[in-house]
Amino acid sequence: MSQTPSRRRPQIPSPGTDAPSSGGAPSEYVPTERTVPTRSAERAAYDRETVHAILDEGYVCHLGFVRDGAPVVLPTLYGRVGDRLYLHGSTGSRPLRAAGQPDPGLAVCVTVTHVDGLVLAKSAFHHSINYRSVVVHGTAHQVTDPEEKTAALDALVDHVLPGRSADSRPGNTKELAATAVIRLDLREVSAKIRTGGPNDEPEDLALPHWAGVLPVAPVYGTPIPADSQGPAIPEPAYLTAR
Amino acid sequence: MSQTPSRRRPQIPSPGTDAPSSGGAPSEYVPTERTVPTRSAERAAYDRETVHAILDEGYVCHLGFVRDGAPVVLPTLYGRVGDRLYLHGSTGSRPLRAAGQPDPGLAVCVTVTHVDGLVLAKSAFHHSINYRSVVVHGTAHQVTDPEEKTAALDALVDHVLPGRSADSRPGNTKELAATAVIRLDLREVSAKIRTGGPNDEPEDLALPHWAGVLPVAPVYGTPIPADSQGPAIPEPAYLTAR
User: Fold this and answer.
1) Domains, chain A, ranges and CATH?
2) Which residues of B47-85 are buried (b: 16+ CB within 10 A; e: fewer)?
3) Across the interface, do A214 and B221 touch by the CB < 8 Å criterion?
4) Are A23 and A150 within 8 A, CB to CB?
5) Cross-chain residue pair B210–A229, CB shorter than 8 Å
6) What ipTM was estimated for this complex?
7) Model confidence over B84-142: pLDDT tens digits?
8) CA–CA separation, B196 vs B212, rounded Å?
9) Phi-psi region for residue A163, left (φ > 0), alpha (ψ -120 to 50) or beta?
10) Among partner residues B94, B137, B160, which is closest to A118 by beta-carbon distance?
11) CA of B21, closest CA in chain A: separation in Å?
């Protein structure tokens, strides 16, 4: 999302090189041909800490898959457990059905983006935005093990609002059956980050246009109790913390 | 992004039925097989006013395309001009190259999502989020006509910050050549919207868990002038308006 030419390019391992598993705590995801950007490669990051922090700050991803040869991108809730993402949906939804049994899995791309600021430059060309994004490529599979499914749904709820899963009625057998969860291992993963002010051309600096950054962030408002709330229930601490 | 079963389903026209053009002011995009959701169809909307309002409120979309048979989803800046989206990138970026000459175009799916609130239900199952999203299916083409390209880039800048394109140095020939713009006509388009509180089961309403909505919205902070700002330039009104 900018015009800055690439300055350096990470080494791409030969095809077939495997990304590390979560065991043994390797600190970086191994770049692959499709996780090294064609441009602005200096903005790419592969370390787990950075990737996980970006993933943990959000809860809506954009799930991409191919249907009848054409791309489909749908907003979807997710949660992270270690080196695995869980994505949420109904058993009737198209991507989740496609990821079902028989289980070759579904090729997906999951992208999470946080916008941090509008970058205003003296020139139209150097306008940009500050952002942090993570792109995950891989094969998603339906979660069928009941224990993993329950844990995944708890993780999904807690990812949106930490502590909430313990403060709600757990899903019953019928609800669990009606909910589909797919998992996607974090193996082929990259983050991309732009920070800082505009990169104006030196000859433009004297132009009379305001240049700088307008920060932006999601802000939570005052909780609105449900009409059906019944007896007054105090706002839980995890809500106020948001 | 919820569990509510479908209540009604829009009529799907027979294949080959064409979506209306922007001339003659038809008020609705014609639903197609892939713009009618498999679930929560009561949340779908096709009227231009709703779709355009959602598109105009954002400036980052998630652009999906297929590369080597696999889906790719990238955050991308966009602007809208009438019934057309313009997407921005570098001439070196993969999707823009793929959408270039010779020009069969590139099958894309462009999705814009606004999160409006976290919906907390008594049961884990009925947790949801309030959101407004637009999904556009179609074929993207590179913009090559210099006049259309210039207008598209102005629209992109003004989409992020209305009024800004007139208050920055326009792109020169070299910059225009280094920027690729793709266009995507709004023909196969749908919006999906969830609003309101949780849809709890009647038998759960007495449970002691807080239920309701935690609103969320992007909020703009105090503008940060660039270090290279030079002489003090007052904040423009379009910036303060954000």
Assistant:
1) 41-213 (2.30.110.10)
2) ebebbbebbeebbbbbbbbbeeebbbbbbbbbbbbebbb
3) yes
4) no
5) yes
6) 0.87
7) 999 986 655 666 566 554 467 899 999 999 999 999 999 999 999 999 999 999 999 98
8) 9
9) left
10) B160
11) 22
